[in-house]
Amino acid sequence: MPRSARIVGWITGLLCLVLVVRVGAASDLGGAGSGLWLLSYDAVPSAQVDLPEFHTAAYADVARFSEQVVDVLLASVATAAGIDPARLATEVSPGGYAGNTTASAQSELSGTGPDAELLAAAIGFVFRQYWIMVSDFGNPAGNAGYAAAHFPSGRLSPRLADRFYQHAAGVHDALGIGFSAFGDVMFFINLRDDDGRPHSGLEDAVFVNTLATAASLFEDIDVTVGAGGTADVRAVSNDWRTDPHGGAYIQRLRTVDSVSLPELALLQRRHTRLVEAAADRYGWR
Q1: 171 by DSSP, 3-state: which?
Q2: Phi and psi dihedrals of 28, rounded to 5?
Q3: pTM of model > 0.70
């Protein structure tokens, strides 16, 4: 089975940020209790590496660099976190946040929730990401809803994903918060605040119906929207502005004896060199 077909059952939706997802029982997801976790994250930009022109970056350049980082560093990051890289499968696909579409890495991990959170902390530390979303889609009493837009097989290109994203955001601001794409499916998430109120201002059923309306009005290609579902969404984070050493990630990583913090620090320096070289090559600084 192609890798993208295996991970098409996941949802995330905010963010060109790091997300960890457990696939669970829902109409748009894989089988219940599958034990598959998905991490979605950016290889660039990276906190503390100044890239003043990154806002002009072409999707193809970001995708190329993301693939390079995955090929060069990801297996070593997993190993340093005490996780067998053979349990990972990764691809690069479109992701959107706040009206912008870029290339994000999507990693499928076979394992437990603590494994997924540990690997997310290691990736967040090495790639200097600000936060990680940890989500359990097997929880029917979750704190977030989601909706999924399905495209014809083999047709969801980065350009088409961006066109639909911009179109959907024009239908309602709630759909402009963000998306992630896997195979031929775009996923949108409806986060709630601590009091259980959706940030979008839309209840979950309305959120799904709003995406369905956007799909029905999209003229480029036929798009269908499934029933959606709920997920338990939590955040693992480090504010690099106030904690430039990644202390929140380090604290989590120190709880596991098999983690090699010196190796992760070395990989972080390697990642910085890769970002700086790419910045010079693509004119990001």
Answers
A1: helix
A2: -100, 5
A3: yes
Coil, helix or strand for 143?
coil
Q: Is the pLDDT assigned to residue 31 strictly greater than 50?
A: no
Closest by Cα among 186, 193, 194 to 212: 186
First vs last C-alpha separation in the chain: 40
Element housing 166 (H / E): helix 158-171
Q: Which residues pair with 103 in a beta bridge?
A: 94
pLDDT tens profile 118-139: 999 999 999 999 887 766 666 6
Query: What's the Cα-to-Cα distance from 141 to each of 136, 137, 266, rounded to whole Å?
Result: 10, 10, 41
- pLDDT for 95 beyond 50: yes
> The tokens 């806002």 sit on which residue?
55
SS (H, E, C) 230-274: EEEEEEEECCCCCCCCCHHHHHHHCCCCCCCHHHHHHHHHHHHHH
Of 236, 244, 45, 208, nearest to 135 (Cα)?
236
Q: Which of 37-41, 103-107, 156-160 has the highest mean pLDDT?
A: 156-160
Residue 146 near residue 233, CB atoms below 8 Å: no
Specify whether the CB–CB gap between 65 and 59 falls below 8 A.
no
- DSSP string for 67-86: HHHIIIIIHHHHHHTT--GG
Find the mean pLDDT for residues 242-249.
Answer: 96
What are the tens digits of pLDDT across the range 220-236? 999 999 888 887 777 77
- For the beta carbon of residue 198, count every other beta carbon within 10 angstroms: 17
**Residues 85, 79 contacting (CB under 8 angstroms):** yes
Helix (H) / strand (E) element for 61: namely helix 59-69
pLDDT at 93: 92
Cβ neighbourhood burial of 37 (10 Å; 0-12, 13-18, 19+)? buried
198: preceding bond cis by omega (within 30 degrees) = no
